[in-house]
Each structure stands twice: as structure tokens, then as C-alpha cells.
Automatic annotation (TrEMBL):
<keyword id="KW-0472">Membrane</keyword>
<keyword id="KW-0812">Transmembrane</keyword>
<protein>
    <recommendedName>
        <fullName>Metallo-beta-lactamase domain-containing protein</fullName>
    </recommendedName>
</protein>
<dbReference type="Pfam" id="PF17778">
    <property type="entry name" value="WHD_BLACT"/>
</dbReference>
<feature type="domain" description="Metallo-beta-lactamase">
    <location>
        <begin position="225"/>
        <end position="388"/>
    </location>
</feature>
<dbReference type="Pfam" id="PF00753">
    <property type="entry name" value="Lactamase_B"/>
</dbReference>
<dbReference type="InterPro" id="IPR001279">
    <property type="entry name" value="Metallo-B-lactamas"/>
</dbReference>
<keyword id="KW-1133">Transmembrane helix</keyword>
<dbReference type="InterPro" id="IPR036388">
    <property type="entry name" value="WH-like_DNA-bd_sf"/>
</dbReference>
<dbReference type="InterPro" id="IPR036866">
    <property type="entry name" value="RibonucZ/Hydroxyglut_hydro"/>
</dbReference>
<feature type="transmembrane region" description="Helical">
    <location>
        <begin position="497"/>
        <end position="515"/>
    </location>
</feature>
<dbReference type="InterPro" id="IPR041516">
    <property type="entry name" value="LACTB2_WH"/>
</dbReference>
<dbReference type="GO" id="GO:0009536">
    <property type="term" value="C:plastid"/>
</dbReference>
<dbReference type="InterPro" id="IPR050662">
    <property type="entry name" value="Sec-metab_biosynth-thioest"/>
</dbReference>
């Protein structure tokens, strides 16, 4: 079991329709006006916090009755339920004695987004007993109807509603749709109509899954509403990149969707296109939508194809999505903005945790990456949906964090070159010394692109040779990284230089033997 959270549904004593929402705390500021000037609008959600671990083992009768009522779904006996509840109420300015009629509602475990453990949230409901209770500024009453309306028709700069409202109250009709799509895969729906299915893929660590995004509006007009579109259908899938062993599950999802299906691909990496063959087998009439540079790198697709370059509209059962050109991660990288919910699907431009790498072999470009990030900020999305990790509820803060991190790395790279680091390995070892060596390969791609950007901007220090730097990439970097990685893993007592040379010699011998056999096979 992963992390456990407690969420409260506190009903209004004056009616049975409205419930209490708490204003969520904004992320910490960066301390830099350039980034702090980008502020996300207020986010309101059910009061929630991590469940405290029980220390003394003493429980009240109230606690025991609530915990026993939820035993079939989740065991909370090792958690301090009452102290957590009191803490939550105190943050709202409400005394424990002012709320009654407590009952367990449900527990919901999120899908496997990674890289950390899944979060399970336990929802309990109670009713405020004091009809004269005044609310603090961080609280307000809201109905489910009003919450849903604000989620499906987002106004720029308006207050936002978080995902716990949808999870806590649930929707039986939507649950049946999820079950229809897949009975074995966990699905998260947020915002309404935007379903995420994390599926195992051949992605880079620390992630293990790629988010399959599914749009299947049930109450749309079914009309593309005008002529400003490049594709229209009744359902849309984004980035089917699952493992081959999950193709059966992917086909079940496709079979459950309307036949007039669009598949949008953000870029060509294997963990984003690995399921295309399964989709084509299940629905030969599906339309592939991608940048032409992405299409040229996709093998095996023989079906319908519509090229996009940014600015085009796609209609899915009457709902509008706009294609955004977002080069940087690759030269054909695209994003997709769902207009009504202002949900921005960013592909691999951002990830749910940590930073992303730019693929130099796939046309990655650091200057374009910065430009695309600012483009996203100007869009002012409601949420950011990465293809790896959780939905981000603070999109402007996240995007500014990426800008700040990239600028910080660039400054460190520039300083390393000024201090005499002239090879790719030396710069990576200097700038990423505190990072696990396993991630230096991805870091090396980013460093090369930062050097390219600095060279174009004429910021490279005198004496730094771009020609020598490029010569240090590729095989030379691979050899030095291999030696360094092996050395870091060998126990201290072993004669490291001799052992490493033996390993390298053995590897070289195996490689020569392998190539010799291949030549003999060809000759024969």
C-alpha cells in the first residue's frame, strides 16, 4: 500500500447540496521576480492531508466505529485517524465538536503514475452542526453542479476546482465508462472527460509507464462546428506507447471507443508509439495525427494520416482541441490544448517529477525548448498533463521551475567551461556530480544542446574549442562514462585500474569476435 491521505466532505447545515472547499496553498515562490510574476489562479478542493501514524495505540469509540466501517476497503488501524481529523478541522477554523454525523464514504487509489508510490485517499463525510458558523477566508461552500460547471467550462484567470471533488463524490455513469474501457487497468479522470491510463512502457527511469490519454465525450454535439479543423471524430487517443504484452488491453480500449477515432502522437519515441500497430489492427480506419518529422520516424503505419504543424484544430464529438507546435524535446514535438477544460497535454516537454531530457538525435534544440515553455506560459492552462507522472495542478509554477532549472544548469555549464572543462564528460561530471551516474547519459544530451545554444549566443569563453568538444562526444564519452561507472561500483579493495582494463579488454575482444562472425556469415 502506498501513501494514505484523509479527505473531508463537510456538508452545509442549511442544505444538503453544498459542501466545504478549502483554498489550496500555492507552491513556494522562487525568490525571482521574473518567475514569481507568473501566478496560477486559486485552486479549491476538499480539505485533505496525509494520515498521521498512530503512536500510543489509544483510540476513542468514535474513531473505532469509523475505522471499522471502512475495513472492507482499507485498513487504517495503524493510523491516527482522530488526530489527523482534528488537524484538518483546525486549519478550517472549525472545532471537532462542531461537526457530527460522520461516516466513511469511500477510498480511492490513484493509478500507477510513478515514480513514487501510489496515493490512496480515504473520504469521510460529516455535517457542520452550527448553522451560525462563520467561515475563514480559505473556505467556501460550493455545490457539485457548480464545481462541475467550472471544470468543464474554464474561464481565464478564474478559480479552479481540484481532483478530490470528482474522486470523493464519484459518478456512477463515468465509472461504468471507465470499466467499459478497461476492467484491469486503473484509470483517472480529471478534468471531466479527460481520462489518463498509465500503461507500462519502455520508457526511461525513474518512470515505468506512459500516460495514455483518452477523450470520449458522451454528450457532445457530434458536429465539428465549422470548417476550421484538420480532423474530427467521436473519440481521441494520445500517445499509445505501451509494451507489446499490453496490446491486448490497448485493443480492448480501442474496441470500446467509437469507430471514428483519432490517434494523436506528440513525438516519435518508442514509449509514445509502441501501441500504434495494435490500434491499427483493432480499427483500420483510425486517423493518425502528428508532425511530418514525427511521421517520417514511425515505421509500420499504413493507415490514414493527417500532418499538423501547430495552430490547427481537432474536433472530438463537438469538443475543440488546438494543436501546439512545441519543439525542443524533439524537432517534431507537439502539444494539445483541450479548450473547454484548458488542459494542456505536453508530451515529454515536462514530466511529473524531475526534469526532462532533450533528444539531440531526434532534433532536440535548447533554444526552441525555452521558446515552447514560454509559449505554454502564455496559454495559461488550467492543468498540465505530462505523459509520465501525475497531472500538475500548478502549471505556471511548474513551467517556471523548468525554466529556472534549465537556466541554472546553463550557468553551471558555462562556469565549468570557464574553469577548464573542455570535454563532454568533464562538463557532465562537474555539473551533475550530485546526480546518479545512470542519468548522465540523458544529461549529456542536454549539455550538448546547452553548448550549442551558448555558441549561437556567442557566450562560449575564449579557448574553448567547439571542434574538440564535439570530438569528445559519442564513443569517447561512452568509454569514460563506462570506466567511471564501473569504478564507482567496485569495492575499494579490488585493484580498480587493472580490473577495469580487464573488463574493457574483454568487452573489446567480444565485440571483435562478434563482428568477425557477422562478416563470415555475410561472406558465406
Amino acid at each position: 500500500m502506498g501513501n494514505l491521505k484523509l479527505a473531508l466532505i463537510i456538508k452545509n447545515p442549511r442544505d444538503d447540496v453544498t459542501f466545504l472547499l478549502e483554498k489550496q496553498k500555492q507552491p513556494a515562490k522562487f525568490g525571482d521576480e521574473h518567475y514569481d510574476s507568473f501566478v496560477d489562479s486559486d485552486l479549491w478542493d476538499l480539505p485533505s492531508t496525509d494520515l498521521l501514524v498512530l503512536e500510543d495505540g489509544v483510540r476513542s469509540g468514535f474513531t473505532i466505529s469509523v475505522l471499522e466501517s471502512c475495513l472492507e476497503e482499507v485498513d487504517l488501524m495503524n493510523f491516527d485517524f482522530e488526530s489527523t481529523l482534528i488537524l484538518l478541522l483546525a486549519n478550517l477554523g472549525i472545532d471537532f465538536s462542531d461537526v457530527g454525523e460522520w461516516r466513511f464514504v469511500r477510498s480511492v487509489e490513484e493509478p500507477e503514475f510513478g515514480p513514487d508510490s501510489c496515493v490512496r485517499t480515504c473520504f469521510i463525510a460529516g455535517k457542520l452542526l452550527n448553522t451560525d458558523q462563520s467561515l475563514q477566508d480559505n473556505c467556501k461552500w460550493m455545490s457539485m453542479e457548480a464545481c462541475f460547471a467550472s471544470l468543464i467550462d474554464v474561464k481565464p484567470g478564474s478559480d479552479r476546482v481540484g481532483p478530490l471533488v470528482l474522486l470523493g463524490f464519484g459518478d456512477d455513469s463515468r465509472q461504468s465508462l471507465k470499466h467499459k474501457l478497461s476492467s484491469s487497468l486503473s484509470i483517472q479522470e480529471y478534468p471531466p472527460g479527460v481520462m489518463l491510463v498509465p500503461m507500462r512502457s519502455r520508457t526511461l527511469k525513474p518512470f515505468k509507464t506512459t500516460n495514455l490519454v483518452v477523450f470520449s465525450p458522451e454528450n457532445g454535439s457530434g458536429d465539428h462546428q465549422g470548417t476550421d479543423f484538420v480532423a474530427h471524430g467521436d473519440a481521441l487517443i494520445v500517445d499509445p506507447g505501451c509494451l507489446f504484452k499490453l496490446h491486448v488491453e490497448l485493443k480492448k480500449i480501442v474496441d470500446a471507443l467509437p469507430r471514428k477515432l483519432i490517434v494523436f502522437v506528440t513525438h516519435h519515441h518508442r514509449d509514445h508509439i509502441g501501441g500504434l500497430s495494435a490500434i491499427q489492427e483493432s480499427n483500420p480506419d483510425v486517423i493518425l495525427v502528428a508532425h511530418v518529422k514525427t511521421r517520417h520516424r514511425i515505421d509500420g503505419w499504413s493507415g490514414n494520416y493527417t500532418p499538423v504543424s501547430g495552430g490547427e484544430n481537432i474536433y472530438v464529438n463537438g469538443q475543440k482541441l488546438t494543436v501546439i507546435f512545441a519543439a525542443g524535446h524533439t524537432d517534431g514535438h507537439m502539444a494539445l490544448l483541450h479548450i473547454s477544460t484548458q488542459s494542456l497535454i505536453v508530451g515529454d516537454h515536462c514530466v511529473g517529477q524531475g526534469s526532462t531530457f532533450l533528444d539531440i538525435r531526434g532534433g532536440g534544440n535548447m533554444t526552441e525548448y525555452f521558446q515552447s515553455t514560454y509559449k505554454f506560459l502564455e496559454l495559461s492552462p488550467n492543468v498540465v498533463i505530462p505523459m509520465h507522472g501525475r497531472v500538475n495542478l500548478w502549471p505556471k509554477h511548474m513551467l517556471c521551475g523548468y525554466l529556472k532549472n534549465r537556466r541554472s544548469r546553463e550557468e553551471s555549464i558555462l562556469k565549468a567551461t570557464e574553469d577548464g572543462a573542455h570535454t563532454l564528460y568533464d562538463i557532465v561530471a562537474n555539473v551533475y556530480s550530485s546526480v546518479d551516474r545512470r542519468f548522465w547519459w540523458a544529461a549529456a544530451s542536454n549539455v550538448r544542446l546547452h553548448i550549442d545554444k551558448l555558441a549561437v549566443e556567442n557566450k562560449i569563453p575564449e579557448g574553448f574549442s567547439i571542434q574538440k568538444f564535439k570530438a569528445s562526444c559519442g564513443l569517447r564519452f561512452a568509454i569514460r562514462w563506462t570506466v567511471g561507472y564501473i569504478r564507482s561500483k567496485i569495492p575499494f579493495k579490488i585493484n580498480k585500474p587493472g580490473f577495469i582494463m580487464s573488463v574493457i579488454a574483454a568487452g573489446a575482444g567480444y565485440f571483435l569476435l562478434y563482428t568477425s562472425k557477422k562478416k563470415n556469415q555475410i561472406k558465406s
